Amino acid sequence: MKLKVYKPDGKATRRTVTLDESVFGIEPSDHAIWLDVRSIQANGRQGTHKTKERSEVRGGGAKPWRQKGTGRARVGTIRSPLWPGGGTIFGPRPKDYSVGVNRKTKLLARKSALTYKAREAAILVLEDFSFDKPKTSDMAAVLAALEVADQKVLLLTGTADANLYKSGRNLRKVSVVDAASASTYDLLNAGVLVFQESGLQALTSILGGQVEATQGNESESVTEQEG
Questions:
Q1: Judging by beta carbons within 10 Å of its beta carbon (0-12, 13-18, 19+), is residue 53 exposed, middle or buried?
Q2: Rounded to the nearest 5 degrees, what angle is found at the Cα of 187, between the Cα atoms of 184 and 191?
Q3: pLDDT (0 to 100) of residue 216
Q4: What are phi and psi of 194, to 5 degrees?
Q5: Of 72, 110, 154, 165, which sits with the fewest C-beta atoms within 10 Å of its C-beta?
């Protein structure tokens, strides 16, 4: 699949890039996607929930009344779980919810997510750009020029760019991530993927593919093998 390369002002350049079929044109695996997304969401849980049990609630050291002769039920402590202010029965405890996924499954999941986005024509490629300083209006202007301002956008950069990140974080539907760190969930959660050229090369290389860039009638192959 060939895509035009755009400038940040929304104008198309004379260059195109060809998406690698081994990354953007595979037979997608929904099961691999499910495994990876489940792992990502599970690993994001803190697991720090905790309630106090009977032995942890303050007070209740003395027996409230004698065992026999009162006509009332026998009670050993006012912090019994049956009493108001007592401990919790079978309450939540700290727990590790992390779920592991092997490397090949994670790679397949990301390739599957990218294939779905390619099929939906939800991928744009931009020339590399940055801002001199963080400015939300500049980022909004770029998205408006590309006619994606009303969509959920994931901007994938070649490297971590603080100015771009800070320029996009105040826009409700915009996320800025360096391409190498983009997860399957990030890719699927976006309505449209906007790649910087370097970001496209970086992510394709990680997934074992290559990007071919074309300038006019001249073709230049940009290849990065997986290390």
A1: middle
A2: 150
A3: 66
A4: -110, 105
A5: 72
Q: Tell me the residue ranges of DSSP E strands in 19-143.
A: 123-126
Rg of the chain's alpha carbons, rounded to an integer? 27
| pTM score | 0.80
3-state secondary structure of 16: strand
Structure tokens at 121: 């024509």
Element containing residue 218 per DSSP (H, E): strand 218-222
DSSP symbol at 181: G
Q: What percent of the chain has pLDDT over 70?
A: 94
Both structure tokens of 118: 């390619």
Q: How many residues does the chain have?
A: 227
Q: What percent of the chain has pLDDT over 90?
A: 85
Q: What is the pLDDT of residues 22-57, one digit of tens each?
A: 999 999 999 999 999 999 999 999 999 999 999 899
d(CA 64, CA 79): 10
Q: How much is the pLDDT for 223?
A: 40
Q: In what order do the strands lie in the sheet with 123-126?
A: 174-178, 153-157, 192-196, 123-126, 2-6, 12-18, 211-215, 218-222
Residue 98 has pLDDT above 50, yes or no: yes
